[in-house]
Amino acid sequence: MSLSCFELGERMLAVEEARAAVLALAEGPLPSECVSLHSLRGRVLSEPLIAPIDVPQNTNAAMDGVALAWPEALPPDGFLRVAEIFAGHDAQRPLADGECAGITTGAPLPPGADTVIMREQLAIDYGADGAVRVRVERPERVRRGQNVRQAGEDIPRGAAALDAGTRLGAAELGLIASLGFAEARVVRRPRVALFSTGDEVAAPGEALPAAGIFDANRFALMALVEEHGGEVIDLGILPDERGAIADGLARAAVEADLVLSSGGVSVGDADHTRAALLEQGELGFWKIAIRPGRPLACGRLGARGVPFLGLPGNPVASMVTFLQFAAPLLARLQGREEAWPQRLTAVAEQPLRSREGRVDYLRGIYRSDGEGRLVVRDGGAQGSGILSSMVRANCLIEIDDARASVAAGESVTIQPLFRLP
């Protein structure tokens, strides 16, 4: 059983140990709500979606051509075409031996038919009496049951079409619509309150003080929250005053399901910041064997025990620690069961530096080489304040704490980074 963040003390924690303690802050998924199909993109199912119909509903044609019952021996003068069946219309009558029906893609097969032969394989003879006979030109290329979609072959009635915990994208929305659902029950989006602190921090659009920096972290973190299914409560930049920080935290503890800060919570920072946090809840200060992002605070706020994570102040460190700790917590709050972070294996194109005893996350660029292997290289300068390195990267290279370095040609773990198209 994993320990809570309040039982771990001041010792240096392994990354997996810290991640388990963060996940323990969430008792389980948030409550569910019913949401219309138009608004389901990115949401997470709270219960299995059970198919109320067969998909497809009818056994139907996968090609334009003729539908017939494939015989043991072909009729010497071909098949008599007795009907035309179009998509959206039922067959009028069953087919008898030696009969066929013209059919379009998606139209239901008439009773008695088991095979569809596409038009390109047919010769059509029009008789003087108006009868239309169809001959198969290359019967050796025809097999019984070809070009037929069976009713329920995609999803049978009563089956779980989608499991609880599925995050809904384009394919899932199409599937939901194909079953006739206009809405579905999903987990409520986690509400994530976040703020920055620091007398040196200025809002973008304002004049930059001589000793100031623009507030990059809050906007990067807001985007990450939304990418991982959360809903942002933006508390802005809180002044370096105990009362202002306490008021912001008190509001967040009522409205939010998770509270994030960037900078100002590690040991040695201003006493009023730490005092405000302790005033509103309980806080465990951590040291994690990770680079970048060693200082990270974990705790709970308010009567509801809302999880709190104090991320490092350096921009890259705040993003890396979000992905390692806040993202898995958001996944749990939404009931998502897939492993997080998501990992692949690649071959290092160059030597990579690390240090035993900590997990290093290098910003990297991976690709597929000429042999179809994933290969990866670092993305240049790795300082935790070099935000442009995250722009260049398409992955994090995860070097575990048992490795002092990675030689060119050795395998290494990577975590692909989400990128908008």
What is the average per-residue confidence, as pLDDT, rounded to a whole number?
Answer: 92
Q: Calculate Rg over CA atoms.
A: 31 Å
How many helices?
7
The tally of strands reads 29
Query: Approximately how much beta-strand content do the residues carry?
Result: 25-35%
Q: What is the general shape? A: elongated
Helix content: 10-25%
Which regions are unreliable across 5 or more consecutive residues at pLDDT < 50? none
Based on helices, strands and strand pairing, what is the structural class? alpha/beta
Query: How far do the termini sit from each other?
Result: 41 Å
Q: In which order are the strands of the major sheet placed? A: 1-19-21-22-18-14-17
Largest sheet: 7 strands, mixed
Q: Any overview of this molecule?
A:
It is a single chain. The chain has 421 residues and is of the alpha/beta class. The protein has 7 helices and 29 strands. It has helices at 15-23, 170-178, 216-227, 242-255, 271-280, 315-333, 388-392, and strands at residues 12-13, 32-36, 49-50, 60-61, 65-68, 79-85, 99-103, 115-118, 122-126, 132-136, 148-149, 160-162, 183-187, 191-197, 201-202, 213-214, 231-238, 258-262, 281-288, 290-291, 295-301, 306-311, 344-348, 352-353, 359-368, 374-378, 395-399, 405-406, 411-416. The longest helix has 19 residues, at 315-333. The mean pLDDT is 92.
